[in-house]
Amino acid sequence: MAYSMKDQVVNLKKQATPFYHYDLALLDNTLDAINRAVENTCFKVHYAIKANANDEILERIRLKGLGIDCVSGNEVKKAIQSGFSPKNIAFAGVGKTDDEINYGLDQEIFTFNVESIAELHVINELAQVKGKIAGIAIRLNPNVNAKTHHYITTGLEENKFGINAWELPELFDVLPRLTNLNLKGIHFHIGSQINDLTVFKSLCNRVNDFQTQFKERGIILDHVNVGGGLGVNYSAPNEASIPNFESFFQVFKDFLKVQPNQEVHFELGRSVVAQCGSLISRVLYIKEGIKTNFAILDAGMTELIRPALYQSFHKIENLSQLGEANAKKYDVVGPICESSDCFGKAIDLPETKRGDLIAIRSAGAYGEVMSSFYNLREKAKAYYVS
Ligand code: LLP
C-alpha cells in the first residue's frame, strides 16, 4: 500500500511550525528491508551518521544491528554515546585533525579510512605515541563517474577524496614500514543520490582490479567497503517510500569478486532515512508576482538547504487541502533574505491560503543536520510518530 501523510495531519496541525516530522515505523520497515536483502551474505551495513544524527533515529538503527560510518570526531563521539560499539565504527574524511585521530585511537574504533599517504604517516605516528595499533582501511579513488550532481560526486580523480591509482606503488612501498597500522581493508565511496545502478557495476569492476593488485603483493584484506550512495525517489515519496535495496545489493552479489572469508561493507545514509522525514511548515503569505504566485512559508533554506545548494527536488504537498485538485502554480519560498531560498518553482498545488500546512517530503536525510542559524533563526523542533 502506498504511504500517505493523510492520517497524521490532525496531529501535525497542533504543533508550532516549522518542524521536522519523522515516521519511525517507516524507518523500521526500511531497516528490515535492508536486513532482509543482506541476510545470509557476507555483507555488513554501516549507517552514514552524517545523514541524520537524531537520538531517536540512531536508536532504531542501532537496534536493527547496523554499524556506523563517521566523517568527524564528533560523529564518532555521538555514535559511541548512542551505544554503538567502537568495533562497528569506521571513520573517513580527508581532513582528520590530530585530536580526532587521538580520540579514535583511544576508543579503538574499527578503522580509520585513510584518504592520503600523508594521513597514513600521521596516524602511524600518533598510534606509536600511544603504543597502539590503528585499524585502517585505505580509501581509494576508483575514478568512476557516479552520474549525479557534481557537488556530491566523490569518486573522480579530480575530487579530493581517497588515494589515486597512480599512488599505489608509493603506498605499497611505505605500508610495511608503518608498523603501528593494521591494514584491514580498502574503501570506496563514489557519490550520493545514485539512481543508475550500472554505476555500481562499474565500481565493482574497479574494486576487482584494485583487489588483484593487493593480492599480487600478498596483502590479505578482511573487508572491502564499497561506501554508500544509493538514491531515493524524491518525486514519489509515497509510492517509493522504501528504496529497492534488493536490486542494489544484487549488483554487488553479481559483480564483486569477494575473496575467501572477506566481508563486504556498505555505508548507506540517504536511502536509510530520507523518506521517513518531512519538513512541515505553514504558509505565511500568498503574494502575487509578475509571472507567478509566491507561497511564502515559515520554513526556509535554514531548515532545508538542499534545494538552494544542489537545486534538488523535494515533493511539496499542501496537507490542509489534500485531495483537492491542483489548481494553481506557486513558487514555494522561505522567509530568508536570499533569492535562492526557494523550495520549488512553478509547483502545482490546490488553491493555497495563509495558514495552510505544507509538507516538504523526503527530508529525513541531509535536512536537519544541514540546518543553520543564518538570519538568527531558531532550530526547528523534531517530532516522531511510530
Ligand atoms: N560514506 C561516505 C564516506 C560518505 O562521504 C557518504 C556521504 C556516505 C557514505 C553516505 O552516502 P549516501 O548513502 O547518503 O549517499 N549533503 C548531500 C549529500 C552528501 C553526501 C556526503 N557523503 C545531499 O544533501 O545530497
Write the layout of secondary structure elements.
Elements: H1 9-12, E1 19-23, H2 24-38, E2 43-48, H3 55-63, E3 67-70, H4 73-81, E4 89-91, H5 98-107, E5 111-114, H6 117-130, E6 134-141, E7 163-164, H7 168-174, E8 181-187, H8 198-216, E9 223-225, H9 245-255, E10 263-268, H10 270-273, E11 277-288, E12 293-297, H11 306-310, E13 316-318, E14 328-333, E15 342-349, E16 357-360, E17 381-385
The site of ligand LLP has 22 residues, from strand 10, helix 10 and helix 11.
CATH level-4 homologous superfamily of the largest domain: Alanine racemase
Low-confidence stretches: none
Indicate the CATH class of the largest domain: Alpha Beta
CATH fold node name of the largest domain? TIM Barrel
- Helix/strand/pairing class, anyone? alpha/beta
Q: How many separate domains make up the residues?
A: 2
Number of strands: 17
Total helical elements: 11
N-to-C terminal Cα separation, in Å?
17 Å
Largest sheet: 8 strands, mixed
Shape: elongated
Helix content: 25-40%
Bound compounds, please? Answer: ligand LLP
Overall pLDDT:
95
Write down the Rg.
Answer: 22 Å
The CATH architecture of the largest domain can be named as Alpha-Beta Barrel
Strand content: 15-25%
What does this structure look like?
It is built from eleven helices and 17 strands. The chain has two domains: 25-272, Alpha-Beta Barrel (TIM Barrel), CATH 3.20.20.10; 275-385, Lyase, Ornithine Decarboxylase, Chain A, domain 1 (Beta Barrel). It has helices at 9-12, 24-38, 55-63, 73-81, 98-107, 117-130, 168-174, 198-216, 245-255, 270-273, 306-310, and strands spanning 19-23, 43-48, 67-70, 89-91, 111-114, 134-141, 163-164, 181-187, 223-225, 263-268, 277-288, 293-297, 316-318, 328-333, 342-349, 357-360, 381-385. Strands 1, 11, 12, 13, 14, 15, 16 and 17 form an eight-stranded mixed sheet that branches. The two termini are 17 Å apart. Helix 4 (73-81) runs parallel beside helix 5, helix 5 (98-107) packs across helix 6 and helix 8 packs parallel to helix 9. The longest helix is centred in the middle third of the chain and has 19 residues, at 198-216. 28% of the residues lie in helices and 24% in strands. It is α/β, with parallel strands linked by helices and 386 residues long. The structure holds ligand LLP.
